[in-house]
Amino acid sequence: MTQAIAAEVSGLLRGLGIAERHFIGGDLAVASPITGETIATVPQGAAADVTDVVARAQTAFTAWRRVPAPRRGELVRLLGEELRAHKDVLGRLVSLEVGKVVSEGLGEVQEMIDICDFAVGLSRQLYGLTIQSERPDHRLTEQWHPAGVVGIISAFNFPVAVWAWNAALALVCGDTIIWKPSEKAPLTALATHALLERALARFGAAPEGLAQVLMGGREVGGALVDDARVAIVSATGSTRMGRDVAQRVAARFGRSILELGGNNASIVTPSADLDLTLRAVAFGAMGTAGQRCTTLRRLMVHESVYDVLVPKLVRVYQTISVGSPIAGHALVGPLIDRASFEAMQDALAAAREAGGIVHGGERVDVNGDASFYARPALVEMPGQVGPVVDETFAPILYVMKYATLADAIALQNGVPQGLSSSIFATDLREVEQFLSAAGSDCGIANVNMGPSGAEIGGAFGGEKETGGGRESGSDAWRGYMRRQTNAINYGRSLPLAQGVTFDVG
């Protein structure tokens, strides 16, 4: 199968017009988690290359910022058209490179299309404010200008959608972009950039260096983070990575948008629709083999419904289909690599030591020793102890009982991460308490659904060790621009603010 995957990947890339030198003969081996074997070898850049890349982006910025925003939106519209035309190709590459089941690979590309549509409309709505002045014959306004070069560092689990969230907004805001994709997913980056180049060719008047890709590891990413000409760094990954990025960007007074860890929880109340809850929990906890930042990792179940819901969940975990994401109808594909599987096993061992009862979690032989498939694990825990407070990027769901909603909310909020959360309830009082200022402390709080499956229209991001960043919809565009306040005196006198007098004659 490995040779077949490699041949298919090569054919898909060549079909997009990508020369073989970009994916054959390089020093970065790319493995498909479907089989665990090498499917391409990509040339990497070096940290020294970043200087020239940023210089080109900075030069391009001086021209791009002068292009009217609706015209910039036209480029993003063309990108959306290319994505629509090549959705099947790019979605297939996502499945082959990172192991997503077919519908999820296609769904990721749909997210890219959706954010392009959103950004095109936004290009005519980058609005400021008119503010009443305390001085006569004065007007105060706030306006937003392009920020500059935006560095985008993406992770393997959403190898192209997260780039699109940032790129579509940054481009309409008048910024230039440099993309450092995950070393585990460079092929989908090559394909996406090829589609953007097609859109640029149709657009016809974009400056050279408007959008660039940097292949490489931590050293390349570090050089991008440290370059003072990069106005904004948007980084998706672990909390450890984000803490390093935040400190280095802040040290040079740059700005960062961070999307980091998410130890997400759902609360099941006595009033919950348990059939709906069962389906939502299954997808939230096991979709993408537990490798979403919004994956459901902790489940608080009221003691009155625990013995009804949890046995049904255990049966789902025992029977869920685990297998190749491109063959058959498996719902759970592979973990990205050996390190992820070992981290999962370490967490399960720690859970047992802390008194947990583990259902599932064993390795499943699908495509040999080089690939790492695992049955999702449901772990009944005596409390929020041991590995429960940490995020393990694997399909592990920790389940705990609670007595009162206040107890459940305290458990949910009692971890360092604060990305996404949800409650299952039909009692309006329970729902409103969960959504109140005294409820969930996460950036996302859902009702009668799991914590994953965010839509483009709402800003995506979280609090605490999740980084505080926001991407995608709502007013997230402001993160890619700089604010300027203007005071305009259209009179002939010079009244001063706060009643200050300064008479010189």
From TrEMBL:
CDD domains: ALDH_F7_AASADH (cd07130). It comes from the Bacteria. SUPFAM superfamilies: ALDH-like. Keywords: NAD, Oxidoreductase. The active site is at E259. One of its GO terms (molecular function) is aldehyde dehydrogenase (NAD+) activity. Its EC number is 1.2.1.3. Residues 28-485 form the Aldehyde dehydrogenase domain. It is an enzyme of class 1 (oxidoreductase). InterPro entries: Ald_DH/histidinol_DH (IPR016161), Ald_DH_C (IPR016163), Ald_DH_CS_GLU (IPR029510), Ald_DH_N (IPR016162), Aldehyde_DH_dom (IPR015590), ALDH7A1-like (IPR044638). It holds the Pfam family Aldedh. Belongs to the aldehyde dehydrogenase family. Homotetramer. This is aldehyde dehydrogenase (NAD(+)). It comes from Ameyamaea chiangmaiensis.
